[in-house]
From TrEMBL:
Name assigned to this protein: NADH-ubiquinone oxidoreductase chain 6
Catalysed conversion reaction: a ubiquinone + NADH + 5 H(+)(in) = a ubiquinol + NAD(+) + 4 H(+)(out)
Keywords of this entry: Electron transport, Membrane, Mitochondrion, NAD, Respiratory chain, Signal, Translocase, Transmembrane, Transmembrane helix, Transport, Ubiquinone
Role description: Core subunit of the mitochondrial membrane respiratory chain NADH dehydrogenase (Complex I) that is believed to belong to the minimal assembly required for catalysis. Complex I functions in the transfer of electrons from NADH to the respiratory chain. The immediate electron acceptor for the enzyme is believed to be ubiquinone.
Residues spanning the signal sequence: 1-18
Membrane topology: Multi-pass membrane protein
Organism per entry: Agelaius phoeniceus (Red-winged blackbird)
Source superkingdom: Eukaryota
InterPro entries attached to this UniProt entry: ComplexI_Subunit6, NADH_UbQ/plastoQ_OxRdtase_su6, Nuo/plastoQ_OxRdtase_6_NuoJ
Cellular localization per UniProt: Mitochondrion membrane
Stored Pfam families: Oxidored_q3
Amino acid sequence: MIEFVLFLGLCFVLGGLAVASNPSPYYGVLGLVVAAVAGCGWMVSLGVSFVSLVLVMVYLGGMLVVFVYSVLLVADPYPEAWANWGVAGYGLGIG
């Protein structure tokens, strides 16, 4: 069980790093979803399932609306991916 909780903590940190280091909202929303699901799984393992449900419904729902709005405003045909050198440099600098 402790390995699973540590895995969820690692996914939470890497998801936050993915949101912070990527300039493209297309890939940043993937990091947000990973971080939110890992955080909810972590809270369920601690026994606070109601708070986890509230987090999914309120926080993730609201943030996804903001990301969808920003994606519609950007409309970039070739977004920067995590494989670009600039994005990798952001990730290493933040990490």
